[in-house]
C-alpha cells in the first residue's frame, strides 16, 4: 500500500477544518523519520492573516510536558528528587494545610495527584515576580482531595514547579525554557512571551459561528509553566523526537537521561475517567490505549485555541494539530482517526455514548452540589432525568462563552454518564465515584470535584 502523500493530508486538513468551522489549523505528521506539514485557513479572521506552517499557535497545556522535562533534567542533575518533599528545596512554601505543605513531592505535581485545586487563574501581573506572587495565593486555596488519593488535572501545580525551577537555577522560567530546551533542540519558532510572538505570524483565538477574535489573546504570565508556550507543529514534533530518541537532540547532545525520558511515559496513576483524556498519567505525559497499542501525548486549550498531540512509539508516528476556534475536537477526531488508521493500522476508540440498555442508578447517591475554585456543579433529578447545572466562577467565568449551562446525564455504565456540553458535538463523560475514606466526587473535564452538599 502506498502511503498517503503530503498533498493528501493538506487536502484532508482543509476539507475537515471547513466542515467543523475551524478558522485556521496547522498539522505536523512525523512518521518513520520524515516530517509532513500542512496549514489551512486564517490565523486571524479579523485581520485576514493566512495560516501557514510557520504560524505560531498557543500549544496550551502541552507546555506542561516541556516544564516537566526540565524538572526531570534537574532530577538527572541531582538538584531535585521525585519523592522528597518539595519543601526541602523551597522551605517558604505554604499550601492549604501543614500536611500538604510538608509532604507534596515532584511526583505528585507531575502526575496531578497533589490535591491542589488546579484551576486558580488569578493574574499576578507581567513582572518577573509573577510566579512568586501566584504561589503565595495557593496558601488560601483549599485542597480538593487528600494527597495522592486520586487524580485531578492541576494547572496550579505547574506555576509552583516553575517557581521551584527558578529558585534552583537562578533563571526565570522563560529563560530556562530557552536555555534547556529551545536552543539545544534548535527550535526557531517557539516562544513563551507575547512580545516574542510578535516577531512572527501568530494565530489569534476565535469564538462563535461566524468566528470572532477572542477578547483576550493570552492567559496571565503566571500560568506560563502550565500553558504559555507558542510554537509550530514542526517544533513541537522536534521536542517529541528528542523524547522518542531517549532524551538526545538531533545534534547528538543529551537533553534528558534515557531513564527519565522512559519514566515520564511510565504509568503513575490510573484516571477515574478513562474516556476523556487517557486511561493513565505518567510524569507529564498522558497515557492511553488505542486498539491494543499504547500511546502518549497531551492536549491544550487556551482562549479560543486548542492543541492536540498523540505519539505512537511502536509505529514511529507522532501527530500534532494546532487550531484556533470552531469545533477543534471534532476536527481532531476525524483527522487523527484517518491518520492513525492509514499510517499505523490503529483504530481510534469511539467516544463514550449512552448505554443502549438500561443502567440502574440511585439518584440519592449522586444528587447534590460539587464545588472547587472555578466551578460549581449542581446535580438534580427532575422529570425522571439526572441533570447537571454548571456554573463557572472566578476569573475564568469572565472569559467563558457560556458561564452557566445545563445538561442531561445519560447512564453509560455504573457510575458513568454521558452528556453534551456547549461547543462539542460528541458525548463527554461524567464519572461519580468515592475515595477510600468514603467521600464522594464527580470527575468531569479531567478534574475531581468534591461533593459539598
CATH superfamily of the largest domain: DD-peptidase/beta-lactamase superfamily
Number of helices: 13
Query: Low-confidence parts, pLDDT < 50 over ≥5 residues?
Result: none
Label the overall shape: globular
CATH fold title of the largest domain? Beta-lactamase
- Look at the helices and sheets and give the structural class: alpha+beta
Helix content: 25-40%
State mean pLDDT (0 to 100 scale).
Answer: 95
Largest sheet: 9 strands, antiparallel
Strand order of the largest sheet: 3-2-1-13-12-11-10-9-8
What is the CATH architecture descriptor of the largest domain? 3-Layer(aba) Sandwich
Keywords: Hydrolase
Organism: Spongiactinospora gelatinilytica
GO molecular function: hydrolase activity
Protein name: Serine hydrolase
